[in-house]
Here is the input.
Amino acid sequence: MLKNMWRPFANRANQSKTYLGFLIFSVLLILGFQNCASKLDTKSVSSADSAVPETLVAAADHLANGVPTHTTGPIESVQQPKAFIGFKSVGGKIFAPNGQRFIVKGATMFDYLLVSFTVGGHPTGYAETVYSTIGPQLDSAQAAGLNLVRVTIDPEITQNLRDPKLSYPGELKILDEIIAAATARQIVTQLQIVNADFSRGQALSSFLAGRYKVMPYVWINPANEINCNTSRFSPDILSCRNADVWKSQMASYVSGIRKAGFINPIVINGTEWGTEFRTIQNIRGIPVDPNIVLGAHIYANLDTEFSAADAENIKSRWANLTQWYPVIVDEVGILNTGFSGAVPQYKWMAQFLNFVSNWCRIQGGSGLTALTWYAYIPIPRIVDPNSLRTKNGEWNDWGNIYLNNYLTQVKK
Here is the structure.
């Protein structure tokens, strides 16, 4: 439902600081990464384009060998990590590289930067502002208790659209820097592919899997709300609800990612805008893979309360699957149906987050990612009402609910 934010201005009717002295970024800016010279197609991506950027390998190597990542000295290692210890799914739970259980405390960040709505066409100052505050935003998130940031991406990220005279690099290089900065802080970066049909989504997910396979703090979701948001304007509604189509396509997504050498968690959304896993379970459609995480989506919209009946419905759709799989709320927000005239249902939000907190503590739930940290929508020049914070970095009403009803309740 993330890209349902497009609807108000696309007329869609259907659901859809770094440390400034931290040398990784200096190296990134000096050396740069391999550029993708043309749009990603569905046939192939060159090995040069998909090669792991050396500075990212260095960051991973330092983590694997216990070297402090907040360093002001040069990072010289460009070898593959001596020991790759990533996240693992065991018994319906997620375990971090340190062996401790991992509960997702996440937020979507840097939104509208790496999607086609703004790729190559940011309003003046927008990308510069986001690019220059990657580190500070991650520091603020970590200080609040977040351990995962979800970054939405679509195929246009692989285009070479930046004017070399500008003060910031292209989107793919920005993504490299986000991942390097998050990894330095041991924050997971979940790459969420959006606005892609099956063929382009499969190509992009395999490309990203190969590029970031040595990064222990990268997860991938190959298809945000699979088939429900294939473009900004025309979701495939029939396939959106079709468990058989879901089964076939998701198996291909997972296979492509694993063939690229990526072993970290793959997050998968269910049918019907990520809300439903029952029909998939009924046909045994979830891919057989040792590191799958189920990611459910949900919004308050016009619901005033999260009732006991709502809780039972959620349990039957996905919450009770924790006995077989790690399950997270991959996306929760106030509104996904447009911005005009709707009243934020804060009571529902608080009640739902109370439910999730108890679910994580008692029933094996593996966490939640909120929509969204802060997002300014360049067109039509409004702040996304799902933002947790204000432009000045203060927590708003939704943000305070997230803090008080979830982050402070789920300690680990």
Q: What stands out?
A: The chain has one domain: 2-34+45-407. The first helix runs from residue 7 to 10. The CA atoms of residues 297 and 331 lie 5 Å apart.
